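Q: Could you write out the predicted structure for this multi-component system? I'm mainly interested in how the pieces pack against one another.
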Amino acid sequence: MKHLLSAGDLDLDQAITILDTAAELAALTDRSVKKLPTLRGRTVVNLFFEDSTRTRISFEVAAKRLSADVINFAAKGSSVSKGESLKDTALTLEAMGADAVVIRHNLSGAPHRLASTGWIGGSVINAGDGTHEHPTQALLDAFTMRKHLRDGKGDLDGVRVGIVGDVLHSRVARSNVLLLRTLGAHVTLVAPPTLLPLGVETWPCDVSYDIDSVLPRLDAIMMLRVQGERMHDAYFPSALEYSRLYGLDSARMSRLPDHAVILHPGPMNRGMEISADVADSPRALMVEQVANGVSVRMAVLYLLLGGMKEND
Amino acid sequence: MTIVLREARPYGESPVDLVIADGLIVDIAPVGSASGDVIDCEGLVALPGFVDLHTHLREPGREDAETVESGSRAAALGGYTCVHAMANTSPVADTAGVVEQVWRLGERTGLVDVRPVGAVTVGLAGERMAEIGAMANSAAQVRVFSDDGKCVHDAALMRRALEYVKAFDGVVAQHAQEPRLTENAQMNEGVLSGQLGLTGWPAVAEEAIIARDVLLAQHVNSRLHVCHVSTAGSVEVIRWAKGRGVNVTAEVCPHHLILTEDLVSTYDPIYKVNPPLRTAADIDALRAALADGTIDAIATDHAPHPHEDKDCEWGAAAFGMLGLETAFSIAVKTMIEPGLLDWRGLADRMSVAPARIGRVREQGHDLTVGSIANIALVDPAATRIISSDQLASKSRNTPYASMELPGAVVHVLYGGNVTVRDGALV
């Protein structure tokens, strides 16, 4: 595999290889000296057309722990904001010898274009494109769930996952549905009908408009960020009503099975989709998700850049 | 000078010699009986020169993408003898001055009739009616009015425009797109748009405007033309309206007869077009509607764009594809080969009907003695592989590059003069 563009590109073996590799790398870097020499001399470019400090830092730390050279190329303060096209930016990076380009873009499909046009020769890793996909987020979510619900091993066969919120605009939800399905989990999407895409009934998951009927059956619940601006586009009448119907507060949390865990891709809207006391509860794994994000991204860079082969 | 089109087969029927003089068909004679400047047409089907109701020539304003001259060349090579130049230029064709300029550029090029389309509203802004009367009475004799690219979405304004053009026997050609339902729309709304994370352009946004407009046209007893019909639902609405006697006509684009939304999953903006590529079921309905006459005409929506506007991210790319040089081949592949239309039927949908809708008196004539000699001679047995580098258009945004398509335009006569001979401009 050369690129990681969609969580749907991964078959079961590949997905488990990434998760297992992430677990090994996590153990290795859980030492006082965190750096591995694996990608020494390789160049990883973080090409961010959209602000996302946490994802960029996660990839940056991942690449640096593997000893890669990291170039951060952000739209703001670079030629991109002066009207340089994706193509010219890509050609520039190619000339500089990028071995991998981690791309975050506000337009769906931009990583596909980068990978399919021949503008660059290196690997392309989708770090979130528009409302399409965010495969490494799905991998870190799966890694986190596997650790808590399956002792950090194998697949997620039979795990019941609820994904709640703005599915329509969520690349996290799309990638999670695809990857969790591959790993054998059973996904239920929960949202008001206005925040579900047309045709969602054909997706490999269940759909519900009622969070309360879904809660007691879940092993994991993932709350999606809901932007207040959606209210102005009439997707729902008010933040208060959204919170009342779909928010996770402590009363709802108490109806989850005792073993169930809570995830959120961040950044959270406390008081909107998740109440502060739920966000701060020990069942909420957001801080751990961030740490796991580094391990998973290390694994992806390691596997895509062929580091594994060279060191075998 | 007399031109003899030797062994031409009008509408695919028995071979004859078509004799052309003084711009007219002066005789239809037995093969070998006529003399003059002989053009060998053995095996070729003679059709009335095609008339396009929907062409973007980009001049004035975007001469980097196309000019009246380059677009005329592309049109002639595609078998056309008349094109309607859409109004969304810069400046917009919303005054007599601009439409006369475009018309004169067409006259000077002299390869096809260039009939300017006038804007319905000033600057295509959808707020105030443009000087429709001045454009109708100008040298360009505008009869088709359209804000194409934008929908005349204000119902009261649409009603007034439909009424107003009656004074000139004009027609309002509506780009049916409900604006609020299509904000930032990128592709057909359906299962695939949800998967690809591209904002959907729902069929209902087209169908709702068509439904409203046919009722308005009936109410004020005026003439409506629907641009680039793309959905099965739109076909049903138009069929219903025609059944009620509403004076409505409609066109379909070649790409909507052959390409489906599945191509969007490549994220290659060459497939980005407005209205968007739809589903296989829509294609079936559109072909059937074109066959039974519910849809009156094939119109290209030839939309040239410079390479950089397509060589980018899907969301950043321009809408539109080239059409003039491939429309005939697509018509052969989608309508003739499956037996949905015969050659007379194709002549109607590509020449007679569009000329009638656009009120172009000099075009769309039957191939009979006395008709103006606007003639396309086509080879139905030929096949060709489309190459974007070999098109006459200044732009390269054809969605058919490297596809093998049937049919070729071999010779074209415009007003009795040969514009294309052996597949090349004269």
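A: Regarding packing and overall arrangement: Chain B touches chain A through 24 residues (CB under 8 Å).
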